[in-house]
Amino acid sequence: MARAATATALAVPMGAGLLLAGVAPAVAAVQNPGDGAQYGSATTIAIRADYAASGSENRLTLTSPTGAAVVVARADANRLSGGTLSYSLDLGCWTFPSSDCRGRVPAPNGTWILAQSGGATDRTTFTTRIPPAAPTSVGAAAQSAREVRVTWARGAESDLTGFAVFEAGTVVKDGIGTSACDASRCAAVVSYPEDATGEHTYVVRSYRSVSPGSSDTLASAPSQGASATVSSNPPSPQPSPTSDPDGGQPGTGGEPSSGAPAGGGPSAPASSGSPAPAGTSAPGASSAPAGGSSSEPAFAAGPSQAAPGQAGPGQASPGQAAPGESSSQAAVSQRRAFASGFAAFGPTLGIPKLPPLPQSQPPALAEPLPDGSFAPTLGFQDQVVQERVETVTPGRRITSVVNTALDSERLARSTAGALVLLLIGGHLRRWVSSPARD
User: Fold this and answer.
1) Do the beta carbons of residue 89 and residue 3 sit within 8 Å?
2) How many whole angstroms separate alpha carbon 126 and alpha carbon 432?
3) Strand intervals (E) in 42-138
4) Taking a C-beta distance cutoff of 8 angstroms, is the pair 286, 296 a contact?
5) Would the pTM of this model clear 0.70, i.e. be above it?
6) What is the mean pLDDT of residues 179-201?
7) How far is 96 from 72, CA to CA, in rounded Å?
8) For 289-309, what is each residue's pLDDT tens digit?
9) What DSSP state is assigned to residue 341?
10) Alpha-carbon distance 188 to 180, whole Å?
11) To pair with 268 at 20 to 30 A between CA atoms, which of 50, 145, 300, 311?
């Protein structure tokens, strides 16, 4: 009976141990991902690690290629049973915790480290080699006949290294670094060695590093195409009609057309120097009555400046060169006529009245002097300087010196000084030569 009880007592712990062994995991280690796994797309990795019964806390730590280590899963200590630690790693939106993901946050490329501690100790690694997403919002605009500016949206990858622009499958702009981008946009100018008129279509590719510090890169798929039409440069401005000296047209410096008398006449009434009759207005001038004031500001003509649209004495009408006037002078006259007219009607439009233009008159030149002649050019008069010179004869000079020496006041002072010195000297001699007293 005692032996049966002992056997029963031994059987109960053994059965409990077998029951615990049945619920405990067979292998306490990281189950997924496998050591050395590689991922080439932005997928979601189901991380799972089993642990055995233990008196210490169970942890699962994930270290990214950039060096940041984060505890992604944990479980309290349990001496009776083990369990499983799990975490979902979204490579397209890599945040901790994953529920905080907003928008698109691509995981960096490189080697990841997964470490397990507590009821089991294990360590595995896996790598990500994910190309960047194709650029979006691509645009193109011609800047000249040889330059086109291409723009696109910057990608969200933190390890982007640069970009390249393609046209018809050929690189037309490479070596574009991330410095060509601001927070959201990138831009590059495609240049051609000569005029490239016509339509051009561009696509853009992005590049990202395979791991931190590596020079190897992965290229994105090409973006959607963007087109721009390049036109030729605008033609150079044609010369003004006033540059033809022989055309004989109004406003040129050539001869007047046939049938038109020089200096005005019936065919050129605007160049007449005679004033308009009383009660009438010259073409383009104000119609205010003579001697009265008009509601419109009047144009005050200077001595050599005529009213708008009216030629003064000896002047040509606007747009026509005066006899003997060059084409450049005719252009100046045209500008003056326009300024005069603008000063007349400008205030009616609410524009301030312009000040009168300065009169351009040729400088007055002096008549050339005949050879061999001289004429003073400065109004200086002859300056007469008078000096007083006194002549002194030798005899008078000696007399003056003697008189000065024999001056009574000076002689008295000299004599008194000499006597004082003699008295002092005598007393000193007597005192020195006297015998010493006890």
Assistant:
1) no
2) 127
3) 44-51, 58-63, 69-75, 83-90, 110-117, 122-128
4) yes
5) no
6) 94
7) 8
8) 344 444 444 333 344 444 444
9) H
10) 7
11) 300
Beta strand pairing status for 122-128 and 37-39?
Answer: parallel
Residue 134 pLDDT more than 80?
Answer: yes
The two three-digit tokens of residue 427, written as one number: 């007393």
Q: Tell me the pLDDT tens digit for each residue of 196-218.
A: 999 999 999 999 999 999 999 99
Alpha-carbon distances of 223 from 93, 161, 198, 202, 342, rounded to whole Å: 22, 17, 22, 9, 57
pLDDT for 250 equals: 44
What's CA 46's distance to the chain center, in Å? 51
- Both structure tokens of 218: 């992965």
Q: What angle do CA 220, 226, 231 make, to 5 degrees?
A: 140
Mean pLDDT of all residues in the chain?
A: 73
Of 302, 285, 310, 299, whose CA–CA distance to 360 is shortest?
A: 302
The Cα–Cα gap between 177 and 338 comes to: 55
Q: What share of the chain is helix, strand, coil (3-state, %, to 5)?
A: 20, 25, 55
116 touches 30 (CB < 8 A): yes
CA distance 135 to 152: 6
